[in-house]
Amino acid sequence: MTSAFILALNVLTKPLSEANAQASQQGALQAALEANRALLLERLQSDSSFEEVQRLREEVKLSAEWFCSDTEDPTWSFVQECLLLLLALVHHMTMELERFQLAPPQSAARLQTAEMAPPLPPDVLSVSQQKTLSTALQFVVSLGLCPFLAPGVGVPLGHRSAFGAVVEKLICQEALPPARRRLLTTTNVLLQLAELSTLATLVFTRHLGDMMAALSQLGHEPQKEGERWLRGDECQACQVALKGLLEKVYQPIVIKELLILQGGPKQVARLGSSSTSGGRAGLRSAPGWLRRLCGQLLSERLMQPHGVQAVVRAVLEGGTGGESDWRKCDAVARILVACPQQSTSADAYFRLICPQVLDLLHFKDNLTAQQFQRVATRAALTLVHERPTFTQQYLLAPLLAPLQRCCTACSESSNGQVVVEEAELTRCLEDTYKIWVVGNSPSPALLAALEEVLPVIFTLFCFTKQNVSHLRDLCQEILLWFLGKSEASAALLALRQLSGLQATKSDVAEGFCFTPGSDGGARLSCRDGCSDEDDELYEKLSGEHRRLECLMHLLAELKDSDLPGDFFLDLLKELTSWATAGEEEVKDEEEADVSSMTLLEVEQQMLSHAERQGQRLALLQVLAVMVESLQHSQLLRKTTQVVDFMATLLERACVGLDTVLEPHVGNPVESQTLSMGMGLVATILSTPQVSSEDYALMSKLLPPLDSLSQLHPDGVIQELAANLRAVIATRGAYRPENLAAPAASCSRNPKTSTNGSTMQINEVKESRTPVRTSSPHPASSAGAKNSNHNPESPTKPLSDWLLEACDPNVPTRAFALRTLTQMVQLKDPETVQAKEKVLMLFLENLEHEDSFVYLSAIQGLAALADSYPDRILDRLLRDFQHGPSLPSSNKERSLETRLKMGEVLMRASRAMGELAPHLGQPLVGVFLQGTRDPDAVVRASCLSNLGELCQKLDYALGPLTQELSSCLTALIKTEREAEVRRAAVHVIALLLRGLSDKTTEVLGDVLLGLYRALKWVIRSDPDEVAVTHAQLALEELDDVMRRFLFPEQKLEKKIRVVS
């Protein structure tokens, strides 16, 4: 029977098939409404299929107090018929639904099977039926609701479409019943329709804004005493209905409709303008009572749970991420910051809003997350700027709480459990990155809040540098943002704390450390105790060194910042002050009478002295790491920094000059460093582009230069200091002729002036630490380079170089070996005749313990093998197979010597080039035999060399493919050592990479076996590195086969001239 009601509505709302062409739109519409109403009444009386419709219509009509049979407005008569039919349909569907719920159809229950769908309830409507109902509802709202709204309430019909303007003219406002009663009738009927879920969807999806406008006007519009159209209970019922409607509907839609209902700003009429001009009419501003009501309702929506999200969705849903969305985000942020009047207090409001702002940062959908993060970031930054107290308490403190707990963790309360979970720490860092780095609005409150947890973030960054973690980039960006946005003093203080030069209270609590998480993050847990004191000391020292390396990595990333240079100069100034204080301490210790002191005082004095020494050593370590890790162009990138560096260097040289009485007494390294620094200043002053600003900057060098010119024991330095002081003081008016000579002499020194900072640090390290002669360091080769030896043009005879190659001094021996290598490469005649002696010398030095020596010997043997492969390679291969053959060889170190020989053979293989097919055959046999060596390291070395050699053999590899494939396949499947399996898989990858397009020709017979071996590694090998190598090899094979199956198409155009 539902179809009969829908058919009746269709008769009432269908357009006329014939219309008078001469009639106006208004007349044609009125005629159509009257004709359809008359046709419906006739069909209800005559058509038997409409008996149930007629019966329910009459029942509704009798119970409807609002029905007016003598109205003179044809549009209201039409609306009344629509309302009667809709109410009759609701009564019918309600009864059918109750009957269906009490007793479902027996036929349906009897025929029901497991795979059949359940029967549909009677309130389900088809698409065509929903379309008919939507048309009827549109007529009801357009003719019975919108025309009776007060000016400024809702969107007028005339602004919606041209048809709406026609409808507005058709309505007769003076006819009975009054306009307010009509509005109340239509609204109440629509509310009754909305009680049925099927019809509620149709009503609210299209006409929610009109319903809210009608209820707002009926319930809240002020009424004059003489024009009371509604009773008090009716107004109260409308208020209750409006409140229930707003709570029932999806909140973002409600907020959007409330914003539209609130209207635009007040329109100010301009002189000479007309509101009825032919231009487009603007939207009317809402009356004051409606604006206040909408503001109150919006505030209530905002202060509900998840209210912030509803407001953001209402404003931003459907955005594309363009410029308009940025403006919307700023507008929403300003709305969230403004405390509404309905709130009991600002504290309560922000305590409710700030957690919801943080929740906006945690959405996963890309577009939604991007827009929500914009709003959250802008809101947080605006809150920090306007409400710093509430922001710190309710926004920043909860956001940084996981990092704060890392500082305040207690080992007794944790009981060995995880203190901060991985997900919690990851979310905290992501939120911090979004607010601080993406927001990029440095303020004192934000910088202060981040500074409290900066050591924890740095500790976490150092942890992520040890392994693979997705938190590394987040920590690095946060640290770089703070160092780049903070003031210079705060940034330098933070660097001192991070480097360990100054204590901090906000680092990770003692007894706790970060451990890897299951999802690539980190978590804070109790540190496992270390029973061995040596291991504990090693862990502490390695941790400190690792922190310095990470700090240098951060400073290296600050490419366009002066902070690294300022930090470097600050440390040098502190070092200079300590030098002065050190002399005073020595005097105090000499004057102190230990015999008159108590044991406690002596112990305190020793502890304070040890503490000061520890601080100085830490400072020296930081300076040394800075010089080794950072480029001089980054440490001294401005003229002011160069001048400050020179001032620090000169002040450092002035310390203790009054105690040096004899000439040439003192540290020669200090004198050399000082002369180089002064030569740098002389070079700068010798350039013609020195400006007055540069002279003003260099004026701070005058006092130390004056002291050096009078007190320094070296006469050359005294003269140079006097000349520099005269040039700077006279602003270049006085310039001696030999001013640039010291600079030129310094530039001829192997360590040029650009490495002045390195020399300064070396001078500091050597002057403050005792020199160890028992175990010389490879870095001491500088002494050899400073001698008269010149490897590019050796002036000594070969015999002298051979003798120096046996010198016990490591730098001298290594330098001689490198000189002999160059002589071999240059085909020196004397060296060619004595190549056997040179070979024996290289073989002896190959067994040396110092890496500087045996690496030079490896380089020399590779050069000999490249120059004389026929005679040298055989000897090298024998030593590699059977160990060193020299009488003086240490048999216990035979394995190390064989591995070094393997390095020689690998370098020789790389140098063979096109001769590899001719010279490489013996090497392949030796390397294949070495894969069966008892030692796993030798097997891996042979496979590595084999891979390097096979890349260059090309077609010469053909006869060896079967043997090579069998060897590699057997090692992959049977070898126990993971390193050997990795090397075997890597050989296949190198083989495919070297052969490239020749793979199918050379390895055609064994390619399938190699492919199956690689697939076996991926499926079965437990070693992740071997699996990675196999994947890379398969990628190489995939590229080869793609080029083989789908060769590149070359399009060529040929032009032929026909005679």
From TrEMBL:
Biological process (GO), any one: protein secretion
Segments of skewed composition (Polar residues): 746-761, 770-793
Residue span(s) of domain TANGO6 N-terminal: 4-301
Statement: the UniProt record of this protein carries the keyword Repeat: yes
Source superkingdom: Eukaryota
Pfam families assigned to the protein according to its UniProt record, in alphabetical order: ARM_TANGO6, HEAT, RTP1_C1, RTP1_C2, TANGO6_N
UniProt KW GTP-binding keyword: no
Sections of the chain in a coiled coil: none
Domain TANGO6 HEAT repeat, residue spans: 302-561
Ranges for domain RNA polymerase II assembly factor Rtp1 C-terminal: 799-915, 1007-1039
Residue ranges, annotated region (Disordered): 742-800
Keywords associated with the record: Repeat
InterPro entries for the chain: ARM-like (IPR011989), ARM-type_fold (IPR016024), HEAT (IPR000357), HEAT_TANGO6 (IPR057407), Rtp1_C1 (IPR019451), Rtp1_C2 (IPR019414), TANGO6/Rtp1 (IPR039600), TANGO6_N (IPR057347)
Residues making up the signal peptide according to the UniProt record: none
PANTHER family (UniProt xref): TRANSPORT AND GOLGI ORGANIZATION PROTEIN 6 FAMILY MEMBER, TRANSPORT AND GOLGI ORGANIZATION PROTEIN 6 HOMOLOG
Family per record: Belongs to the Tango6 family.
Name by which UniProt lists this protein: Transport and golgi organization 6 homolog
Species name: Oryzias latipes
Gene: TANGO6
